[in-house]
Every structure is written in structure tokens, then in C-alpha cells.
Design brief:
Layout lengths: L12 E17 L2 E15 L2 E9 L7 H15 L8 H9 L6 H18 L4 H4 L8 E2 L1 E4 L7 H7 L5 E5 L5 H9 L6 E4 L7 H11 L4 E5 L7 H10 L3 E4 L18 E4 L1 H4 L2 H13 L3 E5 L5 H7 L8 E3 L2 H4 L5 E2 L2 E3 L2 E3 L9 E2 L7 E2 L1
Parallel strand pairs: 5-6, 6-7, 7-8, 8-9, 9-10, 10-11, 11-12
Antiparallel strand pairs: 1-2, 1-17, 2-3, 4-15, 13-16, 14-15
Length: 359
């Protein structure tokens, strides 16, 4: 009898694939409107296991596909010295020395490492993070800035979702809300993306929104208007949530007294390793937590969903907004997001034509 012995390379093998996520509808916010978001996927392989990560790169941030690939080439020199099982803290610390920035690039490596480690240990990532198992949770879904006549069709598409996220920050904000309210009385969350620049006007808007069943308002003022945010939050009848005002764990002290909560995104904070530290800090300081995402596929969102049992709200609608999702991951049922109970992050590559280049 002939026995075949397969010998796997234990040291980490690194490869990447640039990709463009295409929106179902033009995506408008205070920074402008776009039809796509560029991303880079990373694949880590060891011992016959594969982990996937995602770097989502909206154009208003500093990172690009080129910068992410450049970072991955540098990181691969470090990663190729490790094999399963590895210490996440050791690898994350080593990767962090490459540059002080490149947060999305770091996040895609972090996500892939956790996915790989979880699969190799036969565990879901939330167990590796020592978090409670996420239960199905209502996610908000985004109505972006755009032509008012498109709102009815967008609302019809999102009929089963219980919370709507409305992008504001341009002229005609009240008109947008009035148009939405003609068709639904569902709870709203409002994301201004730094679009209001006058604190008095912002307070007037928030007071008006308080009568429109709005749960919270996200980043109403530019990120450098810290004193104005103290003034605004003290007077606001609606919870204020920081987004652009904070990126990393080291930024959190800046928002105490200025916001009531934080929008936690893996692409901003460099991934799950640091996200857990942020969750613990936020709970100690009694900050509200919204787990959000950039324009991401099911790869990144499945990783972020590992945290959702710790959140007051989730805004993980990325897969719902795109039409060429290359991964299967979390599922959506009657407005709720739920994990698929698979190992690692639960993200599975379904686009076999995604072209990975080995570093």
C-alpha cells in the first residue's frame, strides 16, 4: 500500500490581492460621492491553514493600494520568521515598528493572523479574544447623500432593517430627513462626517433631530474642534459619537468629556488586537460603543462582528452596499447580523478569480 505524506511549510507565507468593491448605488457623504472603494486582501498560509484579511481604503484617508502593498512587503520580512502557533502580541508589536501609520494595512494583517490562528486551533476568533459569543444583532444600514428621488427605492431595498443610518453634512440636511420621514418612522442614526463647522448651527440641527427619533449623531464637527465638541456635547439632547476624532487606543483620552461614545472601526485602530483594548477602556469610562466599518466586504465585517456582543450598536452594513463581494461571511436575517459559526473569522473566499501575488 502506498502512503502519501504531505509536508506543509510551517513558516508564514504572505500574499496579497488588490480589488475594487463596487457600490450598488453611488455612495455620497460629506467628503464627496464615489462608485467604488479600493481594497487589498492579504492571505497568510501555514501548516495547511489559510487566513484572510482586508484593508479598506476610502479616498478621504491617507492609505492607498500602493501604500498597503508596500507595507505588506516590509511586514512579510517579519511574518516569514513566525510559524503556528504564534504569539499575537509579539507579532503585532513587531509589525507596529514598521511605521507609526498604515493603520488599515496593519489591520488586514491582524485580521488574517487571527483568522489563521483560529482555524489552526479549531476556534472562532471571539473565543481567542476571550469575548462572549456574539448573538444576532440589529445593524444600521446606510442611506448615503444623493438625489432625494432615490430615497424611496433605497428604503424599499432596506425594508427589513430596523435602524437606518443617514449621511448628512451637506446643504439640505433637513430636507433629507423630512424625505425619509415621509416613508418611515424607524429609528435613525445620523453621520455628519465632520460636515458641520459651526457649533451653534450644529446644536440647532441636533435639537431639531431630537424630534426625529434619532439615536445618536456621529462626528458632527471637524476632528480638530475639540473645545467646540465639549460645548456641543454638554448641550446636546442626543448622544454624540466620535469617529474621525479618534483612531488608535492612544487617542481615547482626547474624547473624554467631548463625546458620549466611540465608533470603533478595525481599519482605524489597526485591527482586533487593539480593538479589544479599546472596548475595555470604553466600558471603564462608560463610553457608548458603536462597532462600525468602512466600505468593506464580508472579510473585514466578519472580523469586526466578533466584537459585537460588547457593543451598544453595530453599523456593519458594508456587504449590503456592494455588488461584487468576493467573500462569504456574516449573514443578515430580518435586519439582524449574525455570525455563521465557522472557525476563525468565518470569512470564506468565494471569488476564485481573485489574483493573489506572493510576497
Amino acid at each position: 500500500m502506498l502512503f502519501l505524506c504531505v509536508i506543509f511549510d510551517r513558516f508564514l507565507k504572505v500574499s496579497y490581492a488588490p480589488y475594487s468593491l463596487q457600490f450598488k448605488h453611488p455612495f455620497g457623504l460629506a467628503y464627496g460621492t464615489r462608485k467604488a472603494t479600493e481594497v487589498v486582501y492579504v492571505k497568510l498560509e501555514s501548516d495547511g491553514f489559510t487566513g484572510y484579511g482586508e484593508a479598506a481604503l476610502p479616498p478621504y484617508l491617507a492609505e492607498t493600494q500602493t501604500s498597503v502593498i508596500d507595507f505588506l512587503n516590509k511586514a512579510a520580512v517579519i511574518l516569514k520568521n513566525y510559524k503556528l502557533p504564534f504569539s499575537m502580541e509579539e507579532i503585532i508589536s513587531a509589525i507596529g515598528t514598521i511605521s507609526p501609520n498604515d493603520n488599515a494595512a496593519k489591520a488586514c494583517i491582524d485580521i488574517a493572523l487571527y483568522d489563521l490562528l483560529g482555524k489552526s486551533l479549531n476556534k472562532a476568533v471571539y473565543t481567542l479574544l476571550e469575548l462572549d459569543k456574539p448573538q444576532p444583532k440589529n445593524t444600521s444600514v446606510t442611506i448615503s447623500i444623493g438625489e432625494l428621488n432615490l430615497i424611496p427605492d433605497k428604503l424599499k431595498e432596506l425594508e427589513e432593517y430596523k435602524i437606518l443610518k443617514i449621511k448628512l453634512g451637506n446643504k439640505g440636511d433637513k430636507e433629507i430627513i423630512r424625505c425619509v420621514r415621509e416613508y418611515t418612522d424607524k429609528p435613525l442614526v445620523v453621520d455628519v462626517n465632520q460636515g458641520w463647522t459651526d457649533k451653534y448651527m450644529a446644536l440647532e440641527m441636533i435639537e431639531w433631530l431630537n424630534n426625529q427619533n434619532v439615536l445618536f449623531v456621529e462626528q458632527p464637527l471637524p476632528k480638530n474642534m475639540f473645545d467646540e465638541m465639549v460645548w456641543l456635547t454638554e448641550r446636546s439632547p442626543i448622544i454624540t459619537i466620535a469617529d474621525e476624532s479618534t483612531l488608535r487606543f492612544s487617542d481615547l483620552d482626547k474624547i473624554i468629556g467631548r463625546f458620549n461614545g466611540i465608533n470603533l472601526k478595525l481599519m482605524k485602530c489597526t485591527g482586533l488586537f487593539e480593538a479589544v483594548k479599546i472596548v475595555k477602556y470604553a466600558k471603564e469610562k462608560k463610553l457608548k460603543i458603536n462597532i462600525g466599518c468602512m466600505s468593506e466586504s464580508s472579510c473585514g465585517v466578519s472580523a469586526a462582528a466578533q466584537l459585537m456582543e460588547s457593543a451598544d450598536w453595530i453599523d456593519l452594513d458594508g456587504p449590503l452596499l456592494i455588488k461584487n463581494n468576493p467573500f462569504f461571511g456574516v449573514t443578515f436575517n430580518k435586519g439582524k447580523l449574525q455570525l455563521n459559526n465557522l472557525l476563525g473569522t468565518g470569512a470564506i473566499l468565494i471569488n476564485k478569480n481573485l489574483n493573489f501575488t506572493e510576497v
